[in-house]
């Protein structure tokens, strides 16, 4: 406590579209949960502003307290919209949920762009209006991804002469693939933003379309993304998703800060989902029990001698699943089992179901979203593959390492920054890596992993222990965000 109070205090509003444990579809939800908690430890006063989706579990809905309500005009709709504020406080972080049934009554946070464009225009504006309403004016407004992309734009236009207009803004890119692009009249209609922001330097994408993320990047005081390598990659045509020029133009305010994981949520010593808890000291004794329990749970052949490879992922084009599906028959050599956990594109779901049918007992396809099962795979597998086409940071390789499971990754984005390749001569490194996006190279990396596992278990076990000891917590990265906040508010 003493140390904390010596640090300079800053107030920060996080604005984003998902946050564990209320609503999560991927890593953004983990970051929105973990980073604010860590910032509280660094003497930040943090409020997280989220939509009050109907799909938030009842246990949290019941704990929310009514904080107030007001009506807000929106764009050219000629209507006033209800904005309710429901509040929930947990471990020093205040969560304010923006309530509006019309926009947030769907079962899912993301529906389709036609609906998502108006709802996130509404959300971005309502979040700023709610800060004014509550008279809580933060030093920093920290926005996340395109859903909050209009916030920096509103801040410097419609809100510039209101109290919240004093705040400085940061926009963090978690995934550049999604940008909130729609025709200019529609975005103008819903956002009510002045004509001057619809130019090629800001919101305008081309003759027809506007781009909400692009506008936010232009107006934010700082841009960050979730790894150093991705910060570089997005300025190239290969990874820039057509914004590489815009990002190069703004590169002076762009920085990469790698994600961490929350050691409270991810701790094999206390994790209630596991068959057997373990730590660095006894991982070699207890990991096997988790492997056997996992095989049993999934109907795989129960044999501790098998090499078990996990894959936990949204099943989308980003994640390198076409490489995986191309090599499954070669990977399943009689000594290897593969476990897939994920939902997403039908094409991948069907491929993995087909493999499960064809290779019963050695291939398991869990086409579902299941937190507890994810924890058991991190603990029970020997290796976890993340062969992504692009990966801004990636959290699954961090979870895996922390659970003593060796990552097999493509050298891109945060995967490159967090997994040092195994060196067979010195035994150094954290995992097995490959560079170009080719199925043969993924297979080769898997085979290199197997060779060490089956012929040099001593070295393998050393890597397991090194990975568990590696610092993948939020500590370091949260300090970098705090430094950035201080840089923007140098008083
Ligand atoms: P992305 O954000 O691109 O989906 P990340 O690696 O950053 O990728 O984060 C993914 C997060 O979602 C991790 O916490 C991972 O454990 C979790 N996850 C992904 N798919 C599933 C699933 N089917 N069931 C449970 N957790 C999942
Ligand atoms: C995105 C990225 C992922 C990153 C996560 C959290 O969803 O795809 O790589 O880890 O955001 O920043």
Describe the structure.
The protein has 19 helices and 17 strands. By secondary structure, it is of the alpha/beta class. The protein folds into two domains: 271 residues, Rossmann fold, CATH 3.40.50; 189 residues, Rossmann fold, CATH 3.40.50.2000. It has a nine-stranded mixed β-sheet, sandwiched between helices. The mean pLDDT is 97.
Category by helix and strand content: alpha/beta
Q: What is the total domain count?
A: 2
Oligomer: single chain
CATH topology of the largest domain: Rossmann fold
Largest sheet: 9 strands, mixed
Q: Are any ligands bound, and if so which?
A: adenosine-5'-diphosphate, alpha-D-glucopyranose
Report the top-level CATH class of the largest domain. Alpha Beta
Radius of gyration, Cα only, in angstroms?
23 Å
Question: Which short descriptors sum up this protein?
Answer:
491 residues, alpha/beta, Rossmann fold, 2 domains, 9-stranded mixed sheet, 6-stranded parallel sheet, 39% helix, 19% strand, binds adenosine-5'-diphosphate, binds alpha-D-glucopyranose
Q: What's the gist of this structure?
A:
The protein has 491 residues and is an alpha/beta fold.
Walk me through the topology.
Blueprint: H1 2-6, E1 10-15, H2 27-41, E2 44-51, H3 58-61, E3 65-73, E4 80-90, E5 93-99, H4 101-104, H5 113-134, E6 140-144, H6 151-156, E7 168-173, E8 181-183, H7 184-191, E9 209-211, H8 212-219, E10 222-225, H9 228-233, H10 244-249, E11 254-256, H11 283-298, E12 307-312, H12 321-331, E13 336-341, H13 346-358, E14 363-366, H14 371-380, E15 383-386, H15 396-402, E16 406-410, H16 413-418, E17 432-434, H17 439-455, H18 457-469, H19 475-488
Parallel strand pairs: 1-2, 1-6, 2-5, 6-7, 7-10, 10-11, 12-13, 12-15, 13-14, 15-16, 16-17
Antiparallel strand pairs: 3-4, 4-5, 8-9
Helix pairs in contact: 11-14, 12-13, 12-17, 17-18
The structure holds adenosine-5'-diphosphate (ADP) and alpha-D-glucopyranose (GLC).
Alpha-D-glucopyranose (GLC) is lined by residues 26-28, 31, 174-175, 226, 259, 391-395, 414.
């Amino acid at each position: 406590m003493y140390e904390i109070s010596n640090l300079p205090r800053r107030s920060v509003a996080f604005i984003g579209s998902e946050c564990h444990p209320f609503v999560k579809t991927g890593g953004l939800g983990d970051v929105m949960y973990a980073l604010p908690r860590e910032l509280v430890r660094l003497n930040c006063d943090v409020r997280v502003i989220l939509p009050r989706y109907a799909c938030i579990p009842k246990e949290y809905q019941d704990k929310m307290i009514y904080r107030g309500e007001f009506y807000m005009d929106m764009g050219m709709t000629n209507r006033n919209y209800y904005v309710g504020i429901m509040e929930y406080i947990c471990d020093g972080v205040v969560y304010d949920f923006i309530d509006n049934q019309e926009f947030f009554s769907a079962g899912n946070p993301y529906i389709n762009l036609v609906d998502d464009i108006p709802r996130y225009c509404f959300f971005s504006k309502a979040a700023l209006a709610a800060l004014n309403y509550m008279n809580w004016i933060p030093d920093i407004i920290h926005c996340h991804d395109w859903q909050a992309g209009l916030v920096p734009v509103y801040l410097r236009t419609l809100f510039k002469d209101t109290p919240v207009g004093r705040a400085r803004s940061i926009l963090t890119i978690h995934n550049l693939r999604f940008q909130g692009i729609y025709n200019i009249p529609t975005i103008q209609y819903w956002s009510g933003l002045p004509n001057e922001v619809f130019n090629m330097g800001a919101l305008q994408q081309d003759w027809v379309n506007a781009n909400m993320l692009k506008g936010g990047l232009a107006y934010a005081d700082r841009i960050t993304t979730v790894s150093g390598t991705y910060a570089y990659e997005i300025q190239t045509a290969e990874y820039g998703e057509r914004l590489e020029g815009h990002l190069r133009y703004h590169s002076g305010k762009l920085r990469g800060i790698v994600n961490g994981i929350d050691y409270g949520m991810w701790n094999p010593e206390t994790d209630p989902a596991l068959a057997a808890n373990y730590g660095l000291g006894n991982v070699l004794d207890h990991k096997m029990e988790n492997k056997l329990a996992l095989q049993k749970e999934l109907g795989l052949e129960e044999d501790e001698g098998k090499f078990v490879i996990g894959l936990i992922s949204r099943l989308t084009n980003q994640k390198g699943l076409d490489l995986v599906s191309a090599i499954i028959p070669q990977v399943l050599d009689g000594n290897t089992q593969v476990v897939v956990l994920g939902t997403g594109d039908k094409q991948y779901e069907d491929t993995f179901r087909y493999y499960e049918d064809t290779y019963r007992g050695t291939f398991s396809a869990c086409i579902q979203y299941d937190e507890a099962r994810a924890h058991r795979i991190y603990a029970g597998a020997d290796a976890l593959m993340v062969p992504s086409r692009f990966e801004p940071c990636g959290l699954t390789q961090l979870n895996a390492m922390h659970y003593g499971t060796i990552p097999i990754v493509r050298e891109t984005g945060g995967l490159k920054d967090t997994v040092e390749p195994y060196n067979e001569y010195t035994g150094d490194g954290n995992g097995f890596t490959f560079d170009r996006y080719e199925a043969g190279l993924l297979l080769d990396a898997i085979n290199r992993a197997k060779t060490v596992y089956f012929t040099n278990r001593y070295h393998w076990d050393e890597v397991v222990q090194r990975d568990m000891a590696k610092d993948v917590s939020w500590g370091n990265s949260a300090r970098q965000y705090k430094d950035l906040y201080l840089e923007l508010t140098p008083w």
